Amino acid sequence: FYKNETILCTSKTDEDLHEIGNLKSFMEKIKFLYRNLSPYLRKNLIYKFESKKYLFQINDSTIEGGVGEDPARGGTYTITFNDEFAANKNANNVLMSIAACCNCNIFISTKKDKGDVYDQILNSPNIRKIRLYWRDDPQILDKEAYKAKYISKYGEINFKVEIDMQYAEPDELLIFDRDI
């Protein structure tokens, strides 16, 4: 929520990224997240569909989507989110495209094939890997009280699906920051 941030989201297909009404599409997930923000964060939310891109504007910041071999063409971004990166048939070209326009790239994916571009990123000693799990959050001091409160409010199934999910691979979410 800083001013003048430009964020690019990429995915393997246009449908996976932009399909209106498909709650599994990446941009629909972003729209869902914003709709469920606290009112003071949500008050400046404006989004529109333009040129096959959702443009979300918060404090003069933009979140847009791109697909294909060169999704970052002509742009400069603060950060990129690359959904289902290992399954993207254009992964090599996408990596070259985003590396030229941004210093911080987040890869959200499940490992697919040994030796592919995502596997090379996973095994690179120059890339910081971060695994996100709620129990590791230092702000949650009483883990059992947090769990009990969430379950009482939303139910055990929602807790397991939304909060207590565990990844099959420890490196499914990667943050690649050249400045580290």
Can you characterise this structure?
With 180 residues, the chain is of the alpha/beta class. The chain is built from 7 helices and 7 strands, in the order βαααββββαβαααβ. The chain has a 7-stranded mixed β-sheet with strand order 2-3-4-1-5-6-7. A hairpin with a 2-residue loop joins strand 3 (53-58) and strand 4 (61-66). Helix 6 (143-154) packs across helix 7 (156-163). The radius of gyration is 17 Å and the shape is globular. The model is unreliable at 167-174 and 176-180 (pLDDT under 50).
Characteristics:
180 residues, disordered C terminus, 7-stranded mixed beta sheet, alpha/beta
Fraction of residues in H or I helices? 25-40%
- Total count of helical runs of at least 4 residues: 7
Q: Low-confidence segments, ≥5 residues, pLDDT <50?
A: 167-174, 176-180
Which H/E pattern describes the elements? EHHHEEEEHEHHHE
Distance between the termini: 22 Å
